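Side project, low priority. Logging it here so it doesn't get lost.
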Amino acid sequence: MQAWQVHENGEPSEVMRLAEVERPTPGDGQVLLRVRAANINFPDALLCRGQYQVRPPLPFTPGVEICGETEDGRRVIANPALPYGGFAEYALADARVLLPAPDSLDDAEAAALHIGYQTGWFGLHRRAHLEAGETLLVHAAAGGVGSAAVQLGKAAGATVIGVVGGADKAAVARELGCDVVVDRRGEDVIAAVKDATGGRGADVIYDPVGGDAYAQSAKLVAFEGRIVVVGFASGTIPSPALNHALVKNYSILGLHWGLYATKNPKLILRCHEELTDLAARGAIKPLVSERVPLSEAAVAVQKVADGRSTGRIAVVMEEAA
């Protein structure tokens, strides 16, 4: 089979190599899946760089989120078991964590429903307890993680403010349903959000960026607001001033979605059922901005790594397409 492999750490476009390799053999409790579509996530770039919290042995195949097909023909969503990731014709996955792919979504959309939307659901509902009528601010609102949070926020009845970088991404955020869009490249984010909220700020802030975005969040969070920290795409991990959280009465909530797979796996299934229902009703629909063949996976991963993508880029297998 064909598979992209990383033999040394570095930038995706430099270290990912397409090769002909043997199909992986399932271990105990694993299944072999034919990959129909693999969604590209920022962690794929971190894996290539050797900067992710999980470091599979070299060589490995990246690709942490797929829509695949079982031997008996079922379409499923899975997180491949590294080092046999999703940027290949076949991948391995743990049988106990397979999820049914929603009939309302095609392969690329189904692949993109998992990590970003599960993270959004757990962040907004399990951790921040977002309520209808509240104001939600989403950093990087046109990205893969941010676009999921925007849709979930709107589905929950929140007023959504999207912060983006550039006119093209601002247009995408408006199409996603953001009530207010702030272009950080041409606007003062703090002034714009305070103006939009009458000086009150946002009840819930969803931050996959870190760095300057977190500094803005601390200034914009409302009384008894909640800042949900889900990642550091900026590359800078902030150091929160806890005295500021104390005097302003807000909460800083961390979210590592992957922990639920071992700590409370039943919640992942419950979340998937809710996401499937929302997708069937048309309340959410993964924004797949590009579909590329397997041969272009390395270029696509680099594009995500550089922050030049909107929504999700999916690697779609020729047979599935």
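Brief comment: The two ends are 18 Å apart (CA to CA).
Revisit when time allows.
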